Amino acid sequence: MRRGLEPAMLGARIISVETRRGDIRFPFPPRFRERLAGRRVLELGRRGKHLLFRLDSGETLIAHLGMSGSFRIEDAFVGEFRHPRSKDPKHDHVVFRLDNGKSVTFNDPRRFGFMDLADKGMLDAHPRLAGLGEEPLSPEFDAARLAKLFAGARAPLKSALLDQTRIAGLGNIYVCEALFRARLSPSRPAGVLANARGGASASARALAPAIRSVLVEAIEAGGSTLRDHRQANGELGLFQHAFAVYDRDGLPCLRPRCRGTIIRSRHAGRSTFYCSVCQR
DNA sequence: AACACCCCCTGTCGGC
DNA sequence: TGCCGACAGGGGGTGT
Questions:
Q1: Closest residue to B6 measured CA to C1′
Q2: CATH 3.40.630.30 at A143-275, yes or no
Q3: Which bases of chain B come closer than 7 Å to a protein CB?
Q4: Second label for A23, Cα 20 to 30 Å away, from A100, A112, A196, A255?
Q5: Distance, CA of A260 to C1' of B7, in Å
């Protein structure tokens, strides 16, 4: 989503912001629209699952998509000042109008998403970001880091990898897919990533590149469209075609020569998909 | 401290 | 056709 928004938003000035209700998941921060109007977007970043819009005021807009949130770019001012008709106006909660003639609309049916503003110089200390763990796509992320993060952890790998305070950015789909690629059972205690001396185990050496490859490929594919996810340009995500296990319960394992069947189980209330034959 | 569970909200789908 | 429960990409708060 960050990549998709960049062409429309980077360097653009926000002319105005319309909020169509007082809250999404949380109330908008004080003077939300006023603090955004007139500001130029200097940089689009990301921390875990949070989008970061750095503004020329020094403040940063933080946005989280939750389960069902999305941003949509449109040409707002073609011809006379007319806005394209939304297919889902009921869930269009925030509209940004930009000085380049485009508009960016935040749509979120379930309203698990949220937006907030971080004061100048206070981004890393912001409550929503301060507790986040490592970036799995950072150059430092490797098997040794995995081992250090999870040494001694008894939680199942599945739950531990979803914990944003250790690794930030992995969701239910990509955890399932990464564990499949690493041939690791989601139920194994996360401590298996460390050996007796706290170094990287064979499991960690398999999992680190698996996490990285799943994320890189999913981003490249524009995400995964289960039902209604769209990229910012309106196109569908395509990574669902690459799922090996997610939402494939009852179907044959796709690993060559594996005769297993994909099983669906549950960890901490979330569905888990895995092959009980080749994931150990 | 670490982990599990319920809940927030809306929409969709399958079963009856 | 309609109703009802289960479930969905996340994660905050609380209880054990």
A1: A269
A2: no
A3: 2-12
A4: A100
A5: 36
Reported as a single tens digit per residue, the pLDDT across A143-183 is 999 999 999 999 999 999 999 999 999 999 999 999 999 99
Which single residue has its CA nearest the C1' atom of nucleotide B9?
A: A110
Candidates 3.30.930.10, 3.50.30.50, 3.20.190.10, 3.10.129.10; CATH matching A2-122: 3.20.190.10
Q: Which amino acid is at A55?
A: L
User: Taking the complete model, does pTM exceed 0.90, yes or no?
Assistant: yes
Length A248 CA → C6 C1' (Å): 18
The integer distance in angstroms from the CA atom of A67 to the C1' atom of C2 is 28
pLDDT digits (tens, 9 = 90+) for A187-241: 999 999 999 999 999 999 999 999 999 999 999 999 999 988 999 999 999 999 9
Question: A90: Cβ under 7 Å from strand B?
Answer: yes
Separation of A227 CA and B13 C1' (Å): 12
DSSP labels for A17-57? EEESSSBSSSBPPTTHHHHHTT-BEEEEEEETTEEEEEETT
Q: Where are the domains of chain A?
A: 2-122, 143-275
Q: How far is CA A85 from CA A74, A76, A78, A104, A153, in A?
A: 10, 10, 13, 13, 51
**How long a stretch of residues is chain A?**
280
| Region for residue A7 given its phi and psi (left: phi exceeds 0; alpha: psi -120 to 50; beta: otherwise) | alpha
- The amino acid that residue A126 corresponds to is H
**A204, two tokens:** 């960690």
Question: From the Cβ of A194, is strand B under 7 Å away?
Answer: no
The residues of A between 27 and 86 with beta carbon within 7 Å of nucleic strand B are: none
